[in-house]
Amino acid sequence: MSDDQRVHPSKAADDRASLTAFLDYQRATLAMKCQGLSGGQLKQKAVPTSGLSLLGLVRHAAEVERSWFRLVLNGEDCKPLWPRTNGEFADFQVEDADVDEAFAFWHEACEGSRAAADAVESLDDTVDFRGEVISLRYVLTHMIEEYARHNGHADLLREAIDGVVGE
Question: Suppose 19 and one of 40, 140, 149, 154 were both cysteines; which one would form an S-S bond, judging by CB atoms 3.0 to 4.6 Å apart?
Fold first, then answer.
């Protein structure tokens, strides 16, 4: 993981550029945490007290991207890629998951999210989602928080899998 190719956000950009750059940085961090691992390692639930795996985090990120940008922001009918089973998020159930499919769905979801955000004129533009008023600013900020939290999980998982650490 020493080959860090992430683009660091500008320290002087405007709000929109800062938020989108920080979100892309967080996306790139998750990709970096998965870099160089086998399918088996990506599926490994490496922390005994947790059911999380790196591949589960990638699948979850794909679902969250689609949910916030397609369903909430664009109002699309967006069915889950991995519907819940027994009330549980199926995105985290990776035993039989296809690694290449998961990453393809995630990359596609990120591209769709970027396009959806670009189509909104202002960070302050809002949508009414099920009776709640939600701005693009909120969606971008929430997504940064979502990735940052899960990237902390990814960091612990990666260290447990092969000892690799780093931001």
Answer: 140
Phi-psi region of 75 (alpha: psi -120 to 50; beta: other; left: phi over 0): left
- At 123-137, the pLDDT tens digits run 999 999 999 999 999
Alpha carbon 86 to its chain's center: 23
Report the C-alpha gap between 44 and 63 in whole angstroms: 20
Contact 112, 101 (CB under 8 A): no
Type of residue numbered 148: A
Query: Per residue in 29-79, pLDDT tens?
Result: 999 999 999 999 999 999 999 999 999 999 999 999 999 999 999 999 988
Surface-to-core class of residue 146, CB atoms within 10 Å of its CB (0-12 exposed, 13-18 middle, 19+ buried): middle
Total-model pTM: 0.95
Q: Look at the domain 15-162 and name its fold.
A: Four Helix Bundle (Hemerythrin (Met), subunit A) (1.20.120)
DSSP state of 85: B
Token pair in block for residue 120: 């909104």
What ranges do the domains of the chain cover?
A: 15-162
